[in-house]
Automatic annotation (TrEMBL):
Its EC number is 6.3.2.9. The lineage of its organism: Bacteria, Bacillati, Bacillota, Bacilli, Bacillales. Residues 117-291 form the Mur ligase central domain. It is found in: Cytoplasm. This is UDP-N-acetylmuramoylalanine--D-glutamate ligase. ATP binds at residues 119-125.
Length: 455
């Protein structure tokens, strides 16, 4: 049994609100902690802070005063998006205060065992697959983390008759000390979030914290085909379950002669799997490994793979309009994700891409542009993407200002049989609050084409 009184009377500073900060503050308050919330958004326009204040929680808004650390604090619970260069965070670390994220709180109170999924790409698809595969098994799966309800909210009510299936980011994992999933899934590692982590090595080390506290009684499902992930896995104390698209692995999950195998047992023929894109083979293998470890029924696994066609904003099929297929891949916030999306299609493709400039170039994208007949680009990175497209001999490159203009222009440049693909290769924050908002604007613009054509 987890001790849910462990936070009673503890002095805790919740730094940064958004969804996870608000959930952590409310939970810790319910658990009897003495909570102070600090958020950069001014109080007069901060509805979350006002709601928390009504619960008796102290709120300090508009700035991050170092004086907040002068009280005797037991924890700082940091919003994952706040960088460690923040002066308040740096001072807390200097004072040797535990600086954690809400996923750590969730792990400390959850009665349910956890499956935690991380990687540069494929987390949401894999998390969803595992959750679906575990349905109808002995223990009810609960989905949480970046993909659903904040993990600490789910953990508060979870029982040992349930399993938490949690998508976790490097930002969250960096703020963990005792986090110990029963099953960790490490999908891949690619140059991403370097503005936050500094180097790929540091980024990888943050991801590797998913297995840092695991023992032989726990499991690490990992991508054997990714050299960086394989090296990290070799340092884990967990029981290793590798997966590979390229090699037969007697103790893992692999593809051989058109079928998926788990420890030499045939699971399903690839021709029966409906999820599009070659990149999803890795996600499928990882999900099968994790689900079987935790008691999923083979019948349910097969059913999911024969019916599951993808998640919203992740290579999501939108519609077929006047012979053009539209796909929403707004969750492709880095180059690798867009490469994999582009490689899923053989048809001529109109690519919609662009967004927040994180300082990287896009030369690695060039080899995946061979079927792209036109680039419609927007946002801070449009000039960089245009340069790469030009060097890759993309015939048509057009700058636009918003998603409606992007979709209308893409349709004008397309022919029946073409794919029109939103796969930005960039974060959305220069123009949209989230990748979900960006994806919804795309879907709305596509739906608007039908209206326009009838008017």
């Amino acid at each position: 049994m987890k001790d849910k009184n462990q936070f009673k009377g503890k002095r805790i500073l919740v730094l940064g609100l958004a969804k996870s900060g608000e959930a952590a503050a409310k939970l810790l308050n319910r658990l009897g902690a003495i909570v102070t919330v600090n958020d950069s958004k001014p109080y007069v326009e901060n509805e979350q802070a006002k709601d928390l204040e009504k619960l008796g929680i102290k709120v300090v808004c508009g700035h991050h005063p170092l004086s907040l650390l002068e009280e005797s604090l037991d924890y700082v619970v940091k919003n994952p998006g706040i960088p460690y260069t923040n002066p308040l965070v740096q001072e807390a670390i200097h004072r040797q205060l535990p600086v954690v994220t809400e996923i750590e709180i969730a792990s400390l109170i959850s009665e349910a065992e956890m499956i935690a999924i991380t990687g540069s790409n494929g987390k949401t698809t894999t998390t969803t697959l595992i959750h679906e595969m575990l349905k109808n098994s002995r223990r009810e799966p609960l989905i949480a983390g970046n993909i659903g309800t904040v993990a600490c909210e789910v953990a508060e009510k979870a029982t040992n008759e349930q399993i938490m299936v949690v998508e976790v980011s490097s930002f969250q994992l960096l703020g963990t000390e005792q986090f110990k999933p029963k099953v960790s899934v490490f999908l891949n590692l690619f140059d991403a979030h370097l503005d936050y982590h500094g180097t790929k090595e540091e980024y990888g080390l943050a991801k590797a914290k998913i297995t840092a506290n695991q023992s032989k009684e726990d499991y690490l499902v990992f991508n054997y085909d990714d050299p960086f992930v394989r090296r990290m896995a070799n340092e884990s104390q967990a029981t290793l379950i590798p997966f590979s698209v390229n090699e037969r692995l007697e103790k893992g999950v692999y593809i051989h002669e058109g079928s998926v195998y788990y420890q030499n047992q045939a699971i399903i023929k690839l021709e029966s799997v409906v999820l599009p894109g070659s990149h999803n083979k890795e996600n499928i293998l990882a999900a099968i490994g994790a689900a079987l470890i935790m008691g999923a029924e083979l019948k349910q696994i097969k059913h999911v793979l024969q019916t599951f066609s993808g998640v919203e904003h992740r290579l999501q099929f939108v519609t077929n309009f006047e012979g053009r297929q539209f796909f929403n891949d707004s969750k492709a916030t880095n180059i690798l994700a867009s490469q994999k999306a582009l490689e899923a299609f053989q048809q001529p493709t109109i690519l919609l891409a662009g967004g927040l400039d994180r300082g990287n170039e896009f030369d690695e994208l060039a080899s995946s542009l061979r079927n792209v007949k036109a680039l419609i680009t927007f946002g801070e990175t449009k000039e960089k993407l245009a340069r790469v497209a030009k060097e890759a001999n993309v015939n048509t490159i057009i700058f636009v200002n918003d998603m409606v203009e992007a979709v209308e222009t893409a349709f004008e440049q397309s022919n029946p049989g073409d794919v029109i693909l939103l796969s930005p290769a960039c974060a959305s924050w220069d123009q949209y609050k989230t990748f979900e908002e960006r994806g919804k604007r795309f879907v709305e613009a596509v739906q608007g084409l039908n209206t326009t054509s009838k008017s």
